[in-house]
Amino acid sequence: MTPEERISVIGDEWAVMRSGRATVGDYLDLVSAVHGDPNSIVLGDAVGKIQTIEARIAGDKNERTALQAWVRKEFSPVYQALGPMPQGSAAEPQDKKQLRALLFGLLGAAKDPAVVAEAKQLTDKWIADQTSVDPSLAKTAASVAAENGDAALYDRLLAMSAAAKDPSITTGALFLTASSTTRRL
Fold first, then answer.
1. How confident is the model at residue 22 (pLDDT cuts 50, 70, 90)?
2. Closest C-alpha among 35, 41, 169, 52 to residue 95
């Protein structure tokens, strides 16, 4: 099947599930079947609905925790198979960069401990030098780190927003402080 056909199948299954003729489990079975798709657009379409499932369908904390565990089980091996981002990431194809960032964000939202730790390291690097982390991963890493951050990260992001000469850096850092789980009041 072509990427367009795979996207169509994913969309059809989502529509069937939304109509009540299939279950969330049926949809997640399809996501599981395409979890290793090398096309970031196909995989992005498939996993994009997981946040909707978590926010609107998972009824309680136990169901959300179970969904996060399923995401880690399904997608950690796929992320690991990509290997570390090579130094001089321009040598890596753009689709692979996008795939890496997609999986990184998905696993970060699922509280994968290795990804959360990596996000914190990348964010530390990015705060020190905004050109040191590939742009396709920097924003995602900073978001994951902020969601799992502490007061020290909050303070560093706030200082970064105040010192930045680039308005997009200022705005981005301020938005990250707003999503930080540890905010100063």
1. very high
2. 41
Which has more confidence, 179 or 171?
A: 171
Residue given tokens 């997640």 in the structure block: 28
For residue 42, what are the CA distances in angstroms to 2, 88, 94, 141? 10, 26, 15, 22
Please say whether the beta carbons of 101 and 137 come within 8 A. Answer: yes
Determine the Cα–Cα distance for residues 135 and 115; give it in Å rounded to an integer: 17
Q: What is the pLDDT of residue 180?
A: 66
Q: Name the 3-class secondary structure at 179.
A: helix
pLDDT at 87 over 70: no
| Alpha helix segments (H runs only) across the chain | 3-18, 24-33, 40-47, 50-52, 61-81, 94-109, 113-128, 135-147, 151-163, 167-179
What is the number of alpha carbons within 13 Å of residue 31 lying toward its C-beta? 23
Write the burial class of residue 107 (CB in 10 Å: 0-12 exposed, 13-18 middle, 19+ buried): buried
- Residues 6+ positions from 91 with CB-CB distance below 8 Å: none
Looking at per-residue pLDDT, the higher value among 130 and 116 belongs to 116
Residue partners of 9: CB distance under 8 A and separation at least 6:
1, 30
